Amino acid sequence: MSSTAIKLGTLGVLSVLLVGFCAAQDDYEEVGADCVDTSTQNLDGSYLVVDDSYCDDDGHSHYSGSHGAYRWYYGGARNGGRVYNGTTVRPADAHITTRTGRVVQRGGFGFHFGGGS
């Protein structure tokens, strides 16, 4: 009988820990990302937005090629083909998606999606 009580008690503790862990995983910020050419910064601090494929370099956050340096730009405000008031520093514990809805990073532990379009 005491063996059953210990098993049920352990199961209860594990259940509470699991629910707490899962609840903590949903506590993250929603952030938008645009792929930008950092070599095109205007005087107002805005960058030219380019196709997302320029930032997909085997899971790295930037790529420097013959056409410039391409990076994800997080949390910016978009005006036409330019974006400003954001940062190139990847936010921690954030759920990051592109304007088209593709996931760049999931919230929680910072998983990164490095696949194609």
Could you please describe the fold and organization of this structure?
- The chain is α+β, with helices and mostly antiparallel strands and 117 residues long.
- It contains 1 helix and 8 strands, in the order αββββββββ.
- The chain has one helix spanning 2-25; strands at 29-37, 47-49, 62-65, 68-74, 77-79, 82-84, 94-98, 103-105.
- The longest helix is centred in the first third of the chain and has 24 residues, at 2-25.
- It is rod-shaped and about 70 Å long.
- It starts with a helix and ends in a 12-residue tail after the last strand.
What key attributes describe this structure?
117 residues, eight-stranded mixed sheet, 1 helix, 8 strands, 21% helix, rod-shaped
Number of helices: 1
Instruction: Briefly note the structural class of the backbone.
Output: alpha+beta
Form type = rod-shaped
| Secondary structure: number of strands | 8
- Main sheet properties: 8 strands, mixed
Secondary structure elements and pairings:
Layout: H1 2-25, E1 29-37, E2 47-49, E3 62-65, E4 68-74, E5 77-79, E6 82-84, E7 94-98, E8 103-105
Parallel strand pairs: 1-7
Antiparallel strand pairs: 1-2, 1-4, 2-6, 3-4, 5-6, 7-8
Describe the structure in brief.
The protein is 21% helix and 32% strand.
